[in-house]
TrEMBL record:
It holds the Pfam family DUF4440. This is DUF4440 domain-containing protein. InterPro entries: DUF4440, NTF2-like_dom_sf. SUPFAM superfamilies: NTF2-like. Residues 7-106 form the DUF4440 domain. It comes from Streptomyces niveus (Streptomyces spheroides). It comes from the Bacteria.
Length: 134
């Protein structure tokens, strides 16, 4: 896998796990859209607000089985997001197939040490996973 994009994925998952609003603010594009497993859509401000308000808390959050296809300054990453979480006081544990859409070139996407190298998460779409096919 592309080293830059693998590092981006690790940083993103760590920021989600810890509800690191400052890091997520740098990693998400200004026009970011997230589509949840039930079809709701959140813009960047609403995505971050879930952490700021304490409405979303992760006990664990993992981004694995990731396949990345890079297309110049854009990329698509498909992986599995596993989480043990609470949303609005309700259990939100789950395993989701996630498709991430990334673009390179936005300001603030690095961490000050060059990691991430300008990649931003433009969008994510989550689908709940059932049992794997035989």
């Amino acid at each position: 896998m592309d080293r830059e994009l693998a590092e981006f994925g690790r940083r993103w998952a760590k920021a989600e796990l810890h509800g690191d609003i400052d890091m997520l603010d740098r990693l998400l594009a200004e026009d970011f859209r997230g589509v949840g497993p039930r079809g709701f859509i959140l813009d960047k401000a609403r995505w971050l607000e879930r952490y700021a308000s304490g409405d979303l808390i992760h006990d664990s959050f993992d981004w694995k089985e990731v396949e990345v296809r890079r297309h110049g300054d854009a990329a698509v990453a498909i992986g599995v997001q596993c989480q043990q979480s609470i949303v609005d006081g309700r259990d939100a544990d789950g395993r989701f197939r996630a498709t991430q859409f990334l673009a390179k070139g936005g300001e603030g996407a690095g961490d000050g040490n060059g990691a991430g190298d300008g990649w931003r998460l433009v969008g994510i779409h989550l689908s709940a996973m059932s049992e794997p096919l035989p």
